[in-house]
Amino acid sequence: MADLSPPMPRAGVDYPKTSGQFRDWFGTEEACFGYLAGLRWPAGFVCSRCGGRDYWRTGAGLWMCRGCSRRTSVTAGTIFERTRTPLRTWFAAVWFVTAQKNGVSALGLQRVLGLNSYETAWAWMHKLRQATVRPEREMLSGLVEVDESFIGGVHRGMPGVGPDKISILVAAEHLDHNRIGRVRLEPGPIDRRLALVKFGQRVVAPGSTIRTDGARQLRRFADLGFQHEYFTQLGSDVPAHVNMPAVHMAASQLKRWINGTLHQGISREQLAYYLDEFTFRFNRRTAKSRGLLFYRLLQQATNTDPAPLKDLVIPHDSD
Ligand SMILES: [Zn+2]
Predict the structure, then answer these.
(1) Is the pLDDT reported for residue 264 higher than 70?
(2) How far, in Å, from the CA of 79 to the mean position of ligand 1?
């Protein structure tokens, strides 16, 4: 069978290899528009009305079809739609964000880009986090550990969980030699009955093996098209991280990342964004190239529905 997957992007050709190259490539708005167009139309411009491929560029970021004269903005339908900020600044933000091993705070972004307000920096961070979610994300497969973990001391007064604990649902691929593959994380819902079962069904491909603890309701996995392995903790002196090393590792890295990145409380609403960013970084942790992360994040940003600022929850007591 022919391999139909897109070719791997190449350093120095498809994405900048160094900071010097980054500056050389993206010095003008035109260059940034051109780069976005390449990500959006990898096989060349296609008119969404008539399918025509010939175009003129008629204005900043505008592609006009020669066949039917429809004008398409290269940023329409992306997180950059209707932005008043130069694309060069956005690109610099993405480049900066992808360099930070442990994620970046809104405050850091504000300083580096010289943004006037913390609120602006915060909104940018969240737009970029939104782009880290691939709409067509693949399901986990093989042997997948599924468990609930808790992070503490994050926010107060949430119903359904302890005063300082937030439930996180974690699924992690357990590879050979106890290596860990891809992960998925979601905030646990307030109604926790069957939350893990529904989560597993959402993120794990049917036919995979799901490993959990011995909770009775989790045995439903066996009836839902999965191989189910479970173990009981009761009377066992085997600690949880031996049976579920992948989930344990993902959860402990998440906690370290949150402690190192966030210096203020986060709400349940914001937590979903942070988990998406963590997942994006974790699943690409072996991608050594900063340029490749830059490419992937921009690629996803051009395939993301725009989030108007009013839809984002902005914290009141920002530092
Ligand atoms: Zn057309």
Answers:
(1) no
(2) 24
Condensed to tens digits (0 to 9), the pLDDT of residues 219-243 reads 999 999 999 999 876 555 666 567 8
How far does residue 50's CA lie from ligand 1's centre (Å)?
4
What is the DSSP code string of 89-118? HHHHHHHHHHH-TT---HHHHHHHHT-S-H
**Whole-angstrom Cα distance, residue 167 to residue 161?**
7
**Residue 66 Cα, ligand 1 centroid: separation in angstroms?**
7
CA-based R_g, the chain, Å: 22
pLDDT at 158: 44
Phi, psi angle pair for 142, to nearest 5°? 80, -140
Handedness of CA 81, 85, 87, 92 (dihedral sign): negative
For residue range 84-130, what is the model confidence (pLDDT) as tens digits? 888 999 999 889 888 776 666 778 888 888 888 888 888 888 788 77
Q: pTM for this structure?
A: 0.67
Identity of the amino acid at 139: M
**Measured in angstroms, how far is the CA atom of residue 58 from the centroid of ligand 1?**
14
Distance 52 CA to ligand 1 centre (A): 5
Residue 73 CA to chain centroid, in angstroms?
Answer: 25
Cβ atoms of 165 and 149 closer than 8 Å? no
62 CA to centre of ligand 1 in angstroms: 13
Nearest to 19, CA basis, from 99, 104, 119: 99
| Segment 118-159, tens digit of pLDDT | 888 888 887 887 777 655 467 899 999 999 998 875 444 444
Q: How close is the Cα of 40 to the center of ligand 1, in Å?
A: 16
Cα-to-centroid distance, 64 and ligand 1 (Å): 8
Q: How far apart are CA 307 and CA 129, in angstroms?
A: 11
Q: Which residue has the tokens 């994050």?
A: 154
Q: In order of start, what are the domains of the chain with their CATH numbers? A: 143-266 (3.30.420.10)
- pLDDT for the residue numbered 69: 95
CA of 55 relative to ligand 1 center, distance in Å: 9
